Every structure is written in C-alpha cells, then in structure tokens.
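fyi for ur records
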Amino acid sequence: MERQATTIDLARYERAARFLPPNFVLQLSGTLIDGYWLDKHRYFFCVAEAGADGEIVNRPKLIDARTHTITPVIAFNDLAELLSSQSGKQIDASALAKARYDMPEAGRLVVKSGSDAYHVSLEGPTLMRAEELDAVPALHSPDGRLAAFLKENAVWIKNRETGAARQLTPNGERYYAFGAWVESGLSPLKLRKNPVPDGLWSADSEWFVTHRIDERSLPESGLVQNVPGEGKRPKVHTFKVSSPDADLAEAEFVAYHLPSGRSISSASHPVQVGIMPPFLYKQCWFADASIYFLDWDRFSSEVSLVQMPLDGGPLRTVLTEKAEAGWIDLNPRHNAHPMIRPLLASNELIWYSEADGYAHLYLHDLATGARKGRITEGKWMVREIVHVDATARRILFLASGFEGQRDPAYRRLCAINFDGGGFETLLAPDADIFAVEGAIATDADSGTDLAQFNPFRPSYAASGASADATFIVLGTAATDSATRILLFDVTSSRSTELARSNVDSIWDAPKPQPFEVLAADGVTKLHGAMYLPGDFDPSKSYPLVDCIYPGPHVNWYIRRFPSWPALDLQALAELGMVGIVLETRGMPWRNRAFHQAGQGRMLEPQLSDHMAAIEQLCERHSFLDRNRVGMFGQSGGGYATARAMFDYPKTIKVGVSVCGNHDNRNYMAHWIDKYGPRPESPERESQCNVDVAHKLEGKLFLIHGEMDENVHPAHTLAVCDALIAAGKDFDQLIVPNAGHMLMLEKPYVFQRVANYLVRHLVGAEPPPGFTLQWTDEGVAAAMGMAMSSFA
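which gave:
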C-alpha cells in the first residue's frame, strides 16, 4: 500500500477529538443519573440537563405518576442561599450543579457536595443537619443505622448515629478474608488500595450475609511497575490468579443475626468463585426466612439453587440444571441478576432456562424442585423480569425476537400469567426498550440491593416498576435516535418523557447507518452499524475500519446513540475512514444456538462472520475500498484483531491489537472454562495466537499496559516473541503504569491508534504538534457510559 505524502489537516484531528468518549460524554444532557420510587405513585429522579450557560447540571425532580406532573424539587439559587446561610460554608449554585441528590423519604432531600452531605427539609425549606461523608466504602443497612465495612480481613459494623464500631466476623487472613472481593479477579491491586465490602443486608436490617473466600492455594502472579515515580526503583506487585490449570477459589457464605449475635454458615456446601465476587454477580440473596445462593461447576455447565434457612436448619439443594453441551446462563445479560424468584407464599419458584433452545421462564415446586409447567414459550427470548405479582400471578417482563420486528434484539414490554395465559405486548416502539436500573436491580423483588453502598437512598426502592406495577420507568434507545426515559402507565398505556438525550443537537455528522448482512453461513441475518465522516462524499473511496469485540458474554453492537464503540468509530471516521461495528453469531440476544455457535472455539464463527460482512458491504457500497480494510479492538477485541491478521490476511491488512488475551490457557480460568474448549482438546491449543503469529502479512500494532491486572502484558509479549522468531516486521507499545482500560484512560494511546490507522489505511501523515487531551472528569463519565452500555 503506497503511502501518500499528504498530511491530514489539524482541524480534522481536532474535530475527531470531540467525538471521543471522554470529550463527547461531557456534552451529553438529558441522561438519567438515578431514580427510584418513594411510594406507589411518586418517583424521585435526577437528570443531567443543559443549564443556561450550556454547562451540564444535575437536577433533582419528582413526578406524580397519577397526574404525570413533573416538578423540580428545589431551585438551585434557593438551595445555595439556604446552605450558605445555615451551614457556615459558602456554597454557590455552580457547585450544586455537580452535586448528587437523594430523597430518603418524601419531603427530605440529601445534597452530596464535595465531602459533605446536607439534609434539607423541603418544608420551609430548612437545613436539618450536615454530616461528613464517610470515605471508607461501606454497605448500609436499610434502616440507615448501621454500616458494614472491611478492616484487617474482617467485617466490622459501625453505628452511623454514634460512630461506635465493633467487629462482626472473626479475624480473617490474607487470601482467606471475610467480606473481601475475590483477589484472583479483574482488579486485585486497585481493590487493595480501596477495599470494598461484599455482602448484603436483609430488608429488616437484622441480618448481614457475607462470605469467606479461600484463595490460599491459588498460584501467584505479579506485575513489575518499572516507573513508580519520584525516581524510585522498579516495584514488584504480586497477587493471586485464577488459573485454568489449578483449583478455583472457594467461598463459604456466613450470615450474622445482629440482635442475637447468632450466625449460620454454608461451610458444608462451599461454592467455587470465578473472577467476580458473589454479591456483585448477584449469586446470593435473601428471600423471607432463608438465604438462597447459586452453586456453579467450573465450566458453568451445571448450576444448583441452594437454600440456607435462617433458623440454622440444614442446607437444601432446591433445583439443579445441567447442560449436556455448552454453558448455562440464568440471564442473557452476564452481569444481571439471575431470573430466579422464590415465591414463598405459594411455595413455588420461577426459574429461567434455555433448555428448549430459547430463553424462557418456568414454574417449579419450591419444596421438591419439580417443574410444574412453563410460563413463557415460543421462538423468542425473555430478556429481563421487570415485576412479579405473586398475588395476581402475573409477570411483567422484557422480551425480544418476535416475528416481524425490524431488529430481533429490540426488547418489548410484555405481560403473562403464571399459567402461560393472558400474554400481551404492552409497549413495542421502533426502538429497543431497556430496564432503568440505576444502582440496584430492576425491581425490589429481585432481592439484591447494590444501593446499600448509598446511605441516603431508600434501600430496596425499585428503579423500574412501582410497588403495584401500575407504573414503570424504562428507557428506549436505537442506533440512530436519541435515548428517552419514559414513565409508562400500564393501565392507560400513557407515556410521559422524563428525559431525552440531546445527542441530535451535538452530533454534527451523518447519523449512524444501521445495516443488515448475512453471516458466513449464508443464511443467518446479522445486524450492525456504519459510521461516516462529517464531510462524507459517496463519490470518493474510503478505507474501512472494523471495531471488533467477539463476546461471547456481550453483544458488541449496542443499540444506543451514541455507544462507546460508536464514538471511537466516529472519531476515526472524521480522519478519513468508514467505521463499522457488527453483531455476529456467538453473541447473546438470539436463541441458544446463535449465542453458543462458537462454544469451544473462542473466535469462530465471529471472525468468519466479520469477513463475510466486510465482503458484502464492500460489494454493496462503491465508496468502500476492499483493499484498505483495517481492524482494531481492546481486550477480547485485541485478541480477535491479531487473530484476524493471522487467519485472514487477504482481507485485514492493518490491525491494532490493544491488551489482547492472546492465549486463554494463561488467562483467568472463568473465561476459557465457560466459553472455550475443554481441557485436553485440540481446540484448547489452537485458540492460542502465539502459535499462528508466523502467518502475519500486514501491518500489526501491539499495545499493552504495563500494569494491566486483567490481561497480563505477558500475553502481548508472547506474541511479540513469536513474531520476532518468525522474522516479522511489527510495531509495539508498552505503556508504563497503564492498566486494562488504557484506550479510555490514556489519550496518548488512542492518538497512537488513530495515527497508525491514518498512516497505513488512509495513507496520510498526522498533523505535527497535535496532542490529544481529555480530563479526569471525562474519563470517569466515559467509564460510566462503558459500564452501562450493555444494559
């Protein structure tokens, strides 16, 4: 590929920078920050709005669902005057624009600004009291009196009124601690600096359940921080790792009854722990007089529901499901609460299963585990339980895959009776519907409450459905239209808009172009989106750049405008490329066969589907140059990019592989155990990029963070070693002190990615003297966007 002598205009790079997530997200307004029901008809929410000067303002509001009337909670100027006059501190309206707000009860607003929390009575209004926010992460009891925190490998309880603290659990030890997140996970070093407790309070605030995770026998790994700063010598950091060739960590659940001091334990039934702590993955919860937890085998091919009675009775396995092939999911979304609901009044259980090839709900006997019947049925999938009405025996849920939909991933709001009758579709816009979760699970009956990290939010307050499910707050989104947050009246089907993204007014480029292609099998329909330059001219010829992530736990084609990959692609488009993002087989949101098409192979049929899509798009659009096709990706996307360069060199000519997990035998056990080939199989060896690196023909750029706790830099260095042995020409960058999210955290890294694609795809030189920049505030906002993208 001949390199042209032209230099890209500086203005193009400056325009591209505006679209990158840490810069673009700071311009977005009309986004819901948080929201929850105070009672059956009043919903408190905080929305980011554009202020008079264009600055984004966090504004607390209330809606009365009976009248659909929205009112501001308090005017900023009045609040600033009140707090300044009564707190002894000068607080202006601009500071309040960035404050966070909660309403523990109707009529009382909590304003969190800086390190302080101000309790304001809206009657008057008057300042009730001020308190300093606790810097130590804690889980707060629903009644607001107690906080559970970590200290020296044990869980402690603090009385929030008196400040007195006492030790709850016995003393633990390193790698065998109480309440600590699993160290052999994604962020061991970060968690050491700021230990976060893992556990759950019961709704009556009398019980606290946590775990003791045993990692003592796990192998150790480490990172060398070569430039720790201040001229210090390199520093070695060691930590435990979850290895595919070793036993996994085990957890024992321990629950404490605070009024009596009594405790119960699941020591007789320890569970294996993967890369995330059990409560974050919602694997343990309270239901009336019991604790229920899930017990998975290491391959996620068998799962049991175990009951631990709070009266100290024997543990009981309620139900076990086993897959003959592939893995089991209990929710299509990997980080969502399992769709399991014990129904104590009727001694029944709602259980999610893909046993018939589609994701559906079944009714079981809670005493025996026997299936009583199926609730949902058909060639479509249940995506999320919104509300369970045990008295009326009716479920509100989100589902997708109905015949005739424009996009089979679009969710619809539906209702059905426990006996499978009375099915109806309540809301079906030409867009996706997503559950509004805020900081907690979709509905209170799910029994998991991550909002316990927030001492001022009513615990177990639902974000989605009101207590009687008459009203539901939900979102609608699509690839090319603004996200909206709606209050939906189930009885009347009336919708009221709570917030709408301002993306249409700040996106000064062609709208993302949704497309449909066929998979490599020539039969299966796939969906994706294309991103065009702001000055797009269909008579010109453009290189194509594919932003890849292979899943299989997430669908990389996110139906939001904008999404995280969409912003990266639009930025690159402004530099003279056309970008695409694609959904392939091997990703969720379809049937089990679609999702598990690549089970045991890791990257196929994902890569062959990308090649088929590229071929079809180049055939369809004369402005695409099939001889200038590139790919980039991070983490699993970095792994896929390198493999595409090795396996499909005639199609992918340029690749940027960022922190790829190039040999999953040396990655975290959960990944290859669940999604990859089984031990001793030939496919387990062939998934390794190191062994095929000699096939490189194009231009490959390998990037890794020196302090990547998730994917060790050894993965990239092993590929480098193989390329050197094969005498291949390639480019490499190791970024000192950078972690796994380096493309988002380090503007220098994205600038290097862009420069590489500009030089080798566009055939031009970057402008001299340009330095990409963004702020810590932008990084935090973009990180939040990235984490919420897969809801």
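Residues 138-214+247-322 form a domain with the Methanol Dehydrogenase; Chain A fold (CATH 2.140.10.30). thats all i got for now
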